Amino acid sequence: MRLPHYGFIICACLLLSAVAQAQFNYATNSGVISITKYTGSGGVVTVPNGVTIIGHDAFYFCGNLTSITIPDSVTNIGRYAFYYCTNLADAAIPNGITFITNFVFSYCSSLTNITIPSRVTFIGTGAFKYCENLKGIYFKGNAPILSGGDPFEGDTNLTVYHLEESTGWGSRYGGRPTALWKP
């Protein structure tokens, strides 16, 4: 029996999905899907939709990772998740995130800009530590609480941008100068 033309496309999409999923080790608990470890070769990576947690150390020391797309289904990114991903130049924090954990993007020296969703209310120690090329961090909401440690240690060229209607911003945030963001 010959499959209709669209049958081939559906089969190809299913195969691609399986190949993409082979890049990750998963854990599930009561319907919560967590990535425990990235096992792929790096480059441009997309976390599958439906994943809710990127676990502690999941991409730890993944030097070949250059870009990460994280779906809005992710509500938690663990400590050190992208620690020392030195070639990571493009990362988007999903809208479901409410806190940024300790050292999550530390030593991501290729990051130049990152946008923080409006729901983020807390940023942990060293979250963006020694991201030496980080020039701009753009906040869509009010100023999050800082854990007490410097989230931007070593980021000497960084400016923190915030929207005019947001609150809690002064002339400095986390020891870095702030400026009005007009997207």
Structural class by secondary-structure content: mainly beta
Radius of gyration: 18 Å
Termini separation comes to 55 Å
Sheet with the most strands: spatial strand order = 9-11-13-15-14
Rounded average pLDDT: 90
Q: What is the number of helical segments per DSSP (H or I, 4+ residues)? A: 1
Strand content: 25-35%
Query: Could you give me the name of the CATH homologous superfamily?
Result: Ribonuclease Inhibitor
Q: Determine the fraction of residues in helical runs and give it as a percent range.
A: under 10%
Profile the largest sheet: 5 strands, mixed
Low-confidence stretches: 1-16
Question: Would you report the number of β strands?
Answer: 15
- The CATH architecture classification is Alpha-Beta Horseshoe
What count of structural domains? 1
* Shape descriptor: globular
Order of helices and strands: HEEEEEEEEEEEEEEE
Tell me the layout of helices and strands.
Blueprint: H1 5-21, E1 24-29, E2 32-38, E3 43-46, E4 53-54, E5 65-69, E6 76-77, E7 90-91, E8 99-100, E9 113-116, E10 122-123, E11 136-139, E12 145-146, E13 159-163, E14 172-173, E15 176-181
Parallel strand pairs: 2-4, 3-5, 4-6, 5-7, 8-10, 9-11, 10-12, 11-13, 13-15
Antiparallel strand pairs: 1-2, 14-15
Give a brief rundown of this model.
The protein is mainly beta and 183 residues long.
Outline the structure in words:
- This protein is mainly beta.
- It has a single domain (23-181), classed as Ribonuclease Inhibitor (Leucine-rich repeat, LRR (right-handed beta-alpha superhelix), Alpha-Beta Horseshoe).
- 9% of the residues lie in helices and 30% in strands.
- It has one helix at residues 5-21; strands at 24-29, 32-38, 43-46, 53-54, 65-69, 76-77, 90-91, 99-100, 113-116, 122-123, 136-139, 145-146, 159-163, 172-173, 176-181.
- The strands form four sheets. A five-stranded mixed beta sheet has the order 9-11-13-15-14, with no helix packed on it. A four-stranded mixed beta sheet has the order 1-2-4-6, with no helix packed on it.
- A hairpin with a 2-residue loop joins strand 14 and strand 15 (176-181).
- The protein is globular and about 45 Å long.
- Residues 1-16 have low confidence and may be disordered.
